[in-house]
Write a structure and sequence with these properties.
Layout: E1 7-16, H1 20-30, E2 34-39, E3 48-54, E4 59-65, H2 71-80, E5 83-91, H3 94-103, E6 108-117, E7 120-128, E8 134-139, E9 169-176, H4 182-193, E10 196-207, E11 212-219, E12 226-233, H5 240-248, E13 252-259, H6 263-272, H7 282-290, H8 299-305, E14 308-310, E15 317-322, E16 333-340, H9 351-365
Length: 371
């Protein structure tokens, strides 16, 4: 079960947005993250502004164009709205990982680059993912400065008061793709990155009375990296995947799951910080109580915070909740997750309640009926 590319974990995700300053503030205030580094005109980078926000082992970059002629950033936001441009993988050797991926059939985006200053150097290279997205191979252990060359500590030391959330690290990253694209991207990631298909959800596995999807989960051989890929499946109404593709204008990254060691405290504090979450129906918790499940948490506390519990796995159980879309378009959102006793799934037992919550929001937006 060798990891041929030397992948050791997620490094960071980067958003392209209309206003990096506003998005950075939202992540600091709502998610309780710290703004730890900045790159922009004040640091000699004239064309864009980027903020780095961090949790325990979590890194989120937020970038916007300062110079509107920067076609890559501007065109991305004009087409897709605010969204994830790339996610980065930590690797032992960037050149080796990139060359291996290209040999395996990956489409190149940016060849090997070494960013260097008096604090050391950072190595990166990238390959193509869905539509305008990218995967970056990254190695930063030889750099002692603020993230990478071109970054400094935040220019303005503004204290943002927020309840601490304990967000830990990226658990998985989910992509939504068009009809008949799922298998293509599953095969692409398995072949180019030496991943494997871990789970498959076929016709009828993920559905309600009105909407459905197909899904496969690929992961690295050591399971440090997990990436579900969804595509729409025909239903009576417009599914959440169809809505995403229509609003995003293409395939892309739908949500990022971030882990925590205490989801009740995390969700409670995120709500105090102003973050909006989907609301499961009360009937979900009535059913949960009737099943007499053995979990460490109080079901009353789960219901109070709207947290879902999937105990249908062979090992352990999973606690999760999803934010509402965080931008103006109903596209990207976050998942907060806690895995108990070695749980490895993705909340299969929660799909019904989750879909019903999403469909309720879709109806409010007027995006539920088929055209």
């Amino acid at each position: 079960m060798a990891n041929e590319l030397g992948i050791t974990g997620y490094d960071y995700v980067e958003f392209y947005v209309g206003s990096a300053k506003m998005w950075a503030y939202w992540h600091a205030k709502g998610m309780g993250l710290d703004i730890t580094a900045y790159s922009g005109p004040e640091t000699g980078v004239k064309e864009k502004s980027t903020y780095l926000l961090e949790g325990k082992s979590l890194r989120i970059l937020i970038t916007s164009a300062v110079d509107p002629t920067q076609y890559n950033i501007t065109s991305f936001v004009e087409k897709h709205g605010d969204g994830v441009k790339r996610w980065a993988l930590k690797v032992k050797d960037v050149k080796f990982a990139y060359d291996k991926a290209i040999k395996n059939g990956a489409v190149p985006v940016s060849t090997y680059k070494k960013y260097e200053d008096e604090n050391g150097y950072v190595e990166e290279a990238s390959v193509k993912l869905y539509d305008d997205a990218e995967i970056v191979f990254s190695k930063r252990d030889k750099y002692k400065g603020n993230f990478k060359p071109g970054f400094t500590k935040p220019i303005q030391n503004i204290k943002i008061e927020a309840h601490k959330t304990g967000l830990k690290k990226i658990d998985h990253i989910v992509g939504n793709v068009r009809i008949n694209e799922m298998d293509f991207w599953v095969n692409y990631l398995n072949k180019t990155l030496n991943f494997e298909t871990f789970l498959e959800f076929g016709m009828g596995d993920i559905s309600t009375k009105y909407s459905a999807l197909l899904s496969k989960v690929v992961r690295s051989k050591e399971a440090d990296i997990k990436n579900p890929i969804n595509e729409p499946y025909e239903g009576l109404k417009k599914s959440q995947i169809e809505e995403y593709i229509d609003e995003y204008l293409g395939s892309g990254i739908q949500h990022i799951a971030i882990s925590t060691d205490n989801i009740i405290e995390t969700i409670s504090n995120m709500k105090k910080n102003g973050v909006e979450f989907l609301e499961p129906p009360d009937s979900y918790y009535e059913k949960l109580r009737s099943e007499n499940i053995m979990i460490k948490e109080s079901i009353d506390d789960l219901q109070k915070n709207g947290i879902l519990c999937d105990h249908a796995e062979n090992k352990g159980y999973l606690l999760q909740l999803f934010t509402k879309p965080i931008g103006d378009r109903p596209t990207f959102f976050y998942e907060i997750i806690q895995r108990r006793e070695g749980a490895q799934g993705f909340g299969q037992g929660n799909f019904q309640a989750l879909f019903e919550s999403i469909e309720k929001d879709q109806m409010q937006r007027g995006n539920f009926d088929k055209e």
